[in-house]
């Protein structure tokens, strides 16, 4: 085991990013700032938005996600086509995707956060999410330590890094446009529902919680 | 300043960020947000990447996302103070009290356990809402669609079974 201080190990993180060729430290940091601000500004980090979607009482998160995916799929396809970007496809590890997806989906409904929205929530003062993040660190430790013995085998063999357009040779562009437009259409058609957090209204208006009418 | 922006503006801004990060003038890679957790766990507990194969595999993307995480925390903190003005220390979400129970202990316990399994789930699948759902489906990857479909179904089933959705007016008492 290498004998380094915590400070040196964190310095190593920055050195690693600087040498990766995937954007400067400043770029990566700034992209994070923008990501956090967007999530926060849409209020997508709120329990009421994600757990609210699981309860089918709020549709802000799926509407935003489907729109993002739809627009990105079309934009990115043409960027890749003209050489301004490249695809970085994750492999199809079927049992990993299914078992992982079930664990992830159930946990997301209960915590009301995911790994991208959780930190934003913590930064706005949510202690329960911080406790969830500590749980996550222990989950990550267990995963790392038992990766060789248990988890790697659970993930199964890779069935390749396949994209939808590669399955329909000759119709690549058309398939991307159909995929993208369908998702954009879903995001628009999906009925708008909002589960409001009364505590937020109280904080903004200065009213006490009891005074605010419960809205759905 | 407005306290929140609508979903469609959020979606357009997020698309611009994703495309810029993907582009060769940006970072030439997707955005992900779950690899930083095992990476930071490894750093904090001084696990040797030479000994743990998984840490070796995620060394680069973990470091990238670690720096990204620091930005996320700062961005969320500043906008909660200056833009949405929703920063407050809170222990239990309002809707949890309304649809589950008013016990802080129960919320903390469920939070810890769901956090634990969420990260194991994300690492088994090789991504999360950011890496699979947004970045992966943005690349029209089959792996992301499988993950996204399973997550959507499980999320909704769990939400329907876990919370008390029948008559919210009688909730709020300890009835777990």
Q: Nearest-angstrom radius of gyration of chain B?
A: 19 Å
Q: Tell me about the biggest sheet of chain A?
A: none
What form of chain B results from the Cα inertia axes? globular
How far from one another are the termini of chain A?
55 Å
Give helix and strand order of chain B, one letter per element, not per position.
Answer: HHHHHHH
What quaternary form is this? heterodimer
The parts of chain B where pLDDT drops under 50 for at least 5 residues are 171-176
Entry keywords:
heterodimer; A: mainly alpha; globular; B: mainly alpha; 7 helices
Kindly describe this structure:
The complex is a heterodimer of chains A (216) and B (176). With 216 residues, chain A is mainly α. Among the domains of chain A are: 1-41, no CATH class; 90-162, no CATH class. Chain A has 11 helices and no strands. Chain A has helices at 6-20, 25-42, 47-54, 60-81, 94-111, 118-123, 127-145, 147-155, 164-167, 172-189, 198-205. The longest helix of chain A has 22 residues, at 60-81. The termini of chain A are far apart. With 176 residues, chain B is mostly helical. Chain B is 65% helix and 0% strand. Chain B is built from 7 helices and no strands. The interface between A and B is large, with 146 and 139 residues.
């Amino acid at each position: 085991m290498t004998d380094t201080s915590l400070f040196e190990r964190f310095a190593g993180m920055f050195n690693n990013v600087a040498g990766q060729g995937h954007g400067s430290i400043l770029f990566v940091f700034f992209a994070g700032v923008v990501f956090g601000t967007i999530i926060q500004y849409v209020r997508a980090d709120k329990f009421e938005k994600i757990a609210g979607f699981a309860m089918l009482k709020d549709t802000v998160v799926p509407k935003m996600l489907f729109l993002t995916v739809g627009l990105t799929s079309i934009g990115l396809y043409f960027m890749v086509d003209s050489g301004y970007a490249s695809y970085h496809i994750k492999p199809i590890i079927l049992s990993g995707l299914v078992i992982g997806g079930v664990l992830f989906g159930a946990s997301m409904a209960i915590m009301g956060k995911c790994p991208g929205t959780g930190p934003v929530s913590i930064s706005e003062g949510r202690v329960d999410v911080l406790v969830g993040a500590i749980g996550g660190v222990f989950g990550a430790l267990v995963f790392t330590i038992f990766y060789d013995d248990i988890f790697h085998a659970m993930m199964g063999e890779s069935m390749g890094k396949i994209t939808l357009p590669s399955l329909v040779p000759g119709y690549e562009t058309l398939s991307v446009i159909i995929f993208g437009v369908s998702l954009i259409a879903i995001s628009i058609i999906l009925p708008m529902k909002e589960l409001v957090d009364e505590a937020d209204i109280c904080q903004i208006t200065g009213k006490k919680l009891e005074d605010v009418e419960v809205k759905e | 300043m407005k306290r929140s922006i609508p979903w469609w503006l959020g979606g357009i801004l997020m698309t611009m960020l994703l495309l810029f990060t993907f582009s060769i003038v940006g970072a030439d890679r997707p955005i992900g947000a779950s690899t930083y957790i095992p990476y930071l766990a490894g750093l904090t507990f001084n696990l040797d990447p030479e000994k743990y194969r998984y840490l070796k595999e995620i060394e680069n993307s973990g470091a990238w996302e670690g720096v990204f995480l620091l930005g996320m925390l700062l961005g969320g903190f500043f906008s909660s103070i200056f833009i949405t003005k929703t920063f407050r220390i809170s222990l239990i979400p309002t809707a949890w009290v309304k649809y589950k129970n008013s016990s802080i202990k129960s919320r903390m316990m469920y939070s810890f356990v769901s956090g634990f399994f969420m990260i194991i789930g994300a690492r088994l699948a090789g991504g999360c809402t950011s890496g699979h759902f947004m970045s992966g489906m943005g690349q029209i990857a089959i792996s992301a669609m499988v993950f996204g479909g399973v997550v959507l179904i499980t999320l909704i089933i769990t939400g329907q079974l876990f919370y008390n959705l029948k008559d919210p007016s009688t909730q709020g008492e300890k009835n777990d």
